[in-house]
Amino acid sequence: MQGIVQAKSRVDPLLERLRGKKRVLIMSHTNPDPDSMGGGFGMRYLIEQRLEIPTTFGYRGNIFRAENVEMVNTLGLGLVPEGELNVGRFDGLVVVDTQPGFGHTKLPEGMVVDGVIDHHVPPPKTVKPDGFVDVRTNVGATCSIIAGYMMELGMEIPSRVATALFYGIRTDTADLSRNTSKLDEDAYLWLMARCDRSALARISSPTLPKDYFSAFRTAMNATRIYGKVIVCSLGQTSNPQIVAEMADLLLRLHGCEWVVTGGLYDDIYFISVRARDYDRDAWALLDSVLKGEGSFGGHGTVGGGSVPIKDPSPRGVRRLERKLVRNLLDALGESQTTPVSLA
Ligand SMILES: [Mn+2]
Fold first, then answer.
1. What pLDDT digit, counting tens, does each position of 92-104 carry?
2. How far apart are CA 58 and CA 342, in angstroms?
3. How much distance in Å is there from the Cα of 184 to the middle of ligand 1?
4. Disulfide: which of 121, 167, 273, 286 matches 296 by Cβ 3.0-4.6 Å?
5. Whole-prediction pTM value?
């Protein structure tokens, strides 16, 4: 007798665990980026389709980057801010693009974590949840892992979901140019064929407010070149996203091998690291810059960290920046180099 062959997927144990739940909450790290938003949207679709359980994507912090705001609006991601979540309504919790134990990840108290799907190096003090864990540090984007489940299950997905997942892979891997695995390539091509191209174009180049450009001018003036290392210490900033955007831009400077940018927002000092060459390890560099302070994460040539500041006065910020830059230059052998201004 021939039965119906069910497609098998790596996500099956999670689906089994969630079966029968009433309402599932999906969370990511604070200030969600496209990979976490795309991954969350993808997991919502997967769970709702396979299990017919309603889901909600809850988030902490803000969505800063104009592209990311456009992504939320154009695709109708329907994220719910933490303050508006009624946590008691949920009996399931799935965490995407981060892991419990990271400093930038706060999950609702008392809730059991049913699943973790991520591609970051696990935090040093890992509290291993007893639920489903799929952490693949060789993969460039959480969205690739989630698209992989859909491919394994033979699912067809709406263009909105495909576009969100695709944009997550695009941003985390810079269009497959960094930290890329076979799975990222397969997922990228599979999603590309299902994307809404005009939505994608809108998300990729949204209009920008005037103060965006003045923030860039300030950042240019704050940039110093120490041989192969570019440093941009912004002090207080009104938009922490400029820290990551400057890192991406400065990496294109001739002769640059490393970029480290930083800025204070809401009493947290944010740091971004980028490396030009494939074999560089941003995680290891952040480890030696922060020396146990704050928290950080990274994969391959891209990394980010945050340090809560005790003294947020301009002097206090300058003191922290000086210390971090000293650690950085020591770690990269540029401590004797005289800095040159960029602009
Ligand atoms: Mn990611």
1. 999 999 999 887 8
2. 40
3. 12
4. 286
5. 0.83
